[in-house]
Amino acid sequence: MRLAWVLAGVACIAIVAATALVARSMFFEDLRERTEAALALYSAGLEGRLEKYRLLAPIIARRTDVVTRFQNPVVGAGDRMAGEIARMSGADDVAFVDPTGAVFARGGRLNEGVLSATDRDLRPHVLAALEGRLGRHHAYDATTGKRNYFFAAPVRRARRVLGAVVVRVGLEVVEQDWALSKNAIIAVDPAGVVFLSNRRHWRLSRFTDSSARAESALIKIPSRFGAQGTVRLKFGDDPVGPSVMEVDRRLPLLGWTLYTFADTSIALSRTISAATIAALISLIGLIGLWISRERLRSERLVAIRLERRVRARTRELIVANRKMAREVEERRAAEEELKTTQAELIQSAKLATIGQMSATLSHEFNQPLASIQSYAENAEALIDHGRTDEARENMSRIGGLVARLGKLNRNLKAFARKPGTGASSVAVKAVLDESLNLVSAQAKRAGVTIEVVGDDMVVIAGPLRLSQVLVNLIGNAVDACAEQASAQVAVALDCEDGYGRIRVSDNGPGIKDDALARLFEPFFTTKTSAKGLGLGLSIADKIVREFGGRLEAANRDGGGAVFTVTLKLADAESLAEAAE
Ligand code: ADP
Known about the structure:
Elements: H1 2-54, H2 56-62, H3 64-71, H4 79-89, E1 93-97, E2 103-108, H5 124-130, E3 135-141, E4 146-157, E5 160-170, H6 172-178, E6 184-188, E7 194-197, E8 206-208, E9 217-222, E10 230-235, E11 243-251, E12 256-263, H7 265-384, H8 388-416, E13 424-427, H9 428-446, E14 449-453, E15 458-461, H10 463-481, E16 488-496, E17 499-506, H11 513-518, H12 536-546, E18 550-555, E19 561-568, H13 572-579
Parallel strand pairs: 8-9, 14-16
Antiparallel strand pairs: 1-2, 1-5, 3-4, 4-5, 6-7, 6-12, 9-10, 10-11, 11-12, 13-15, 16-17, 17-19, 18-19
The chain binds adenosine-5'-diphosphate.
Adenosine-5'-diphosphate binds at residues 472, 476-477, 480, 506, 508, 511, 515, 519, 524-527, 532-537, 561.
């Protein structure tokens, strides 16, 4: 990560450096272009001014009146003519020189660079003209302090040089034009002398780029970074000037070089501004990078913390889950045990019922057995007496009794069997017949008649458990009305709204209010311990609820109790299954 920051820092520095370089080259290039344009104007101004006078001398030299004057060079005789020519051309001075170099006429502003009459002028431009060439020369006049440019042309007659016309032009006026420029301008002659400049004290100094100390020399020192043509100038003992851009231009007409030194401070400050802006943008970028990195880090921290919490929570959940699974397993085992216990309870209650019925059942078995025995003995005697038809009749009675005993035995065995736990479609009539078969002996002994009314119906139940419920309800009804004069139990079947009802009613004493509330409690009984355990109704209630039905007890208006078993009727599909 640290490496990334170093790289980002290096990238920023590179951006700033590149911006500075590009901006610098751009601004300096712009400055150079503008300076070059200004220099072109200055040089055009200077050359234009001198060009005008360059042709003036040869033109004057050809004038016939001038040539006539040269044929007879009387001192002072041509002064008026020279003065007039100077005035009309705008030249500062015009002088006529004879072949010996003696000035015989002069005009113009006078005393400013042109020698006085009778003086001999043997300066280079005059000598060149006397030799028949056009002469020109620039010179500083120490007496007047003027810097002049001279043009000289030979005056000929029949190929003979009679003398020379000299025209003087003062150059100060050019510097006046330059005075407006804030940049330094110098015109350097071939000897390396600053002949013209808008810096007064630089005038007539030597312009050199050597480091040799020179009094009143203008020294050019290469700029420290040397780029973009910048230099620093030092004049005499003055301190070294600031870095400036040097732009030069050759003036072929004069053989001079014109220099201007442009102020680079604005270009530099613009470059610095551009670099500063780039640095600021880079800094903002770095800060942005840092902020986003910090945000990323804090988000990652949050995520790690969250992950830890999730992991801890998951561990807790796993432990809780295991605990819950253990508890579920324990509860399931307990329920299983409870179910077994309850099933066993139902079974014991049932066996108890059989026990209670045993007296009547033994009578039920003994009585047919006794009849069978007497029928058999009678049959023997009848056969002995050859009354075989009667004997056969006895045999068939014996057969009937055996069949009845067999049926009773089958019902009893079925009743004693352990019931299943599911519920399916059960036709009520068949179950009711078996139940009645079991309680009929008890009813007969107690002198109770049992009446069944209503049509068969198919309900959702288990046949054995339903039989247990009916045996219990009918048995209780028989017990309740046994004492009555005409004891009667009725079992009525009917259907309503998808439910089938089996109503067991009696004409006994009914149920007392306090007993009514506790009827379905286990071990609630009003009978003696020999006759009742108090489990019958609680188990019957439980069984009926297992079938999805309900068991209700009530007293009848006309006396006696009524117990109603309500069960769901089987739908058409289940009915078809039951029929199979
Ligand atoms: P048990 O018959 O062993 O007493 P049950 O749970 O079958 O146990 O009956 C509980 C009690 O409900 C009986 O002791 C009796 O008092 C009352 N009971 C049941 N059926 C009737 C009825 N048809 N008429 C009056 N009382 C009844």
